[in-house]
Amino acid sequence: MSETQKQADACTMIIFGATGDLTKRKLFPALYNLAKAKFLPDNFAIVGVGRQEMTSEDFRSQIRGNLLEFIGKDIDKELLKWFEARTHYTGGDFADKKTFTELKKLLKELDKQFDIPENYFFYLATPPALFGLVTGKVGEIGLSAETDGWRRFIYEKPFGHDLESAKKLNAELQCLLKESQIYRIDHYLGKETVQNILVFRFGNSIFEPIWNRNYIDHVQITVAERLGVEQRGGYYETAGALRDMIPNHIFQLVTLTAMEPPVSFEADAVRNEQVKILRAIQTFSPEDVLKNTVRGQYGDGELDGKKKAAYRAEANVDPNSNTETFAALKISIDNWRWAGVPFYVRTGKRMAGKHSEIVVQFKKAPFMLFRETGIERLTTNRIIIHIQPDEGITLHFGAKIPGPIVNMGAVDMDFNYLDHFGDQISTGYERLLFDCMTGDATLFQRADMVEASWSIVSPVLDVWHAIPARDFPNYESGSWGPKESDALLENDGRKWKNTLD
Ligand code: BG6
Question: Per residue in 141-200, pLDDT tens?
Fold first, then answer.
């Protein structure tokens, strides 16, 4: 630990839904990484709460197995012991008060044992339908009011399934807690490259002067996945690509790319600027939905030489499903900086490559100086922020090809995270957990952000619901989505940048 490194506050983390996949794949490996880097204090404990009955010893041995699987055989044995001494489990029905009185008893014991000043953060890794119930029960036993230590609650996505349900959930939670206790998590904000967007834009002086409609032609944001819906057919049938990715992950990327410089790096200053962008996004009229949005569903196809089945053939999916696995939107931001600069966003499953990136495409040079030479077309300048994989930033520009005649080639200037900063092992949750333990809500969604995001996509969902897609499946597995998605840009004389990994 460096001398300036801050440690998390002494606290106990309580995980509801502790036997689920998230705890195993993300939360414990993230806690291990934080402890390894000495971000966790000794006055720290973890309590898993689940519906399953098991002893703390059983839970520890599960966690030990998971950590060995996710961290690998180089795991630090001493650290593992440190974790085991601090990990406990209590089981029971979430509707039963007894589950919570048992939890309270255990927390008091741990406070004493590890000298923890009653600081608790509750992680709700449960289905959203239980958010209100669990929060209410924690309140009933007197553990949500911040009388002694602090009390914070993290909620996993999805936060509502449309504007109405998000508003209802916000209202329900705000009756039980103060907004400053509510941490709505979006794991995209845990990604280093996403956090770097702010540093790149506002920590350097050379980009901001050209980051506007005078220089930028358009912005493309792609979050493409090669995976299909895997074991999540049941959830996905009720969600679809738009709900699953756009009002949360993709809108985080849009707001960080488009926002004005905040007055400080304080949570509300940053989030105020983000919400201004969401509110400036033009509302989709039904005509806009037909013209400026595209939906798709994957059919059979091939990836890496292997045959892949159509979405409708996946487990727990209706064979006539109308659920989209691809969504693309042309978004207009009505403000001084971005008027006339479209943001094209798309996301899809079973696409040709796994890549998430932001492409900022600049306008062409205004004068064709090289008309009389061999150069027929000028290179368009782009800044590409690679979010994953191969995290980094590329500047794309034209250069003279060596030789006696003037000819031009397109070249890339690359910054790659791995080359410069080495391989930082991270699950993406470390920063977010740490921020919650130190009370920094900058990277968490505020109620107004969630509602503003849903109000942008709700009219799209309404039209898509009213007019079922007749052409599904309309893209092959292993492709770049339906042809209408290409047409969305081609109609404007533009083209998606497709990258293969
Ligand atoms: C989740 C979605 O929030 O994000 C998944 O529910 C999606 O459907 C995942 O696969 C993508 O996350 P990442 O970090 O792999 O880009």
Answer: 999 999 889 999 999 998 999 999 999 999 999 999 999 999 999 999 998 899 999 999
* Contact status, residue 7 vs residue 38, Cβ threshold 8 Å: yes
Q: Is the CB of 186 under 6 A from ligand 1?
A: no
Distance, CA of 81 to chain centre? 32
Dist. CA 215–CA 366, nearest whole Å = 11
Q: Is 391 in the pocket of ligand 1 (CB under 6 A)?
A: no
* Cα–Cα distance for residue pair 306/300, rounded to 1 Å: 11
Q: What is the pLDDT of residues 212-250, one digit of tens each?
A: 999 999 999 999 999 999 888 999 999 999 999 999 999
pLDDT tens per residue across span 361-379? 999 887 666 666 655 667 7
Measured from the CA of 239, which atom of ligand 1 is nearest? 6
CA of residue 78 to ligand 1 center, whole Å: 33
Ligand 1 pocket residue status of 225, Cβ below 6 Å: yes
Residue type, position 285, single letter: S
Strand segments, DSSP code E, in 17-148 are: 44-50, 87-91, 120-124
For residue 244 and ligand 1, the question of a CB distance below 6 A is answered with: yes
Question: 268: part of which helix (H) or strand (E)?
Answer: helix 267-280
Q: How confident is the model at residue 501 (pLDDT cuts 50, 70, 90)?
A: very low
Name the nearest CA neighbour of 248 among 136, 153, 327, 361. 327
Q: Which of 249, 355, 386, 396 is catalytic?
A: 249
- Cβ atoms of 50 and 94 within 8 Å: the answer is no
Q: Which residue type sits at 407? A: N
- How many residues are recorded in the chain? 501
Tokens for 160?
Answer: 């509502």
Tokens of 396: 């794309």
In the sheet with 343-348, reading across from the earlier edge strand, the strands are: 293-296, 326-331, 343-348, 216-224, 355-362, 382-388, 392-400, 408-416
Which atom of ligand 1 is found nearest the CA of 223? 16
Torsion angle, CA of 321/324/325/327, rounded to 10 degrees? 170
Pocket test for ligand 1, best of 184, 221, 225, 349 (most atoms within 8 A of CB): 225
User: Going by CA atoms, what residue is nearest to atom 14 of ligand 1?
Assistant: 188
Q: Which residue's C-alpha comes closest to atom 15 of ligand 1?
A: 225
Beta-bridged to residue 89, according to DSSP, are: 48
pLDDT digit string, tens, across residues 42-93: 999 999 999 999 999 999 999 999 999 888 888 999 999 999 999 999 999 9
pTM of the model: 0.93
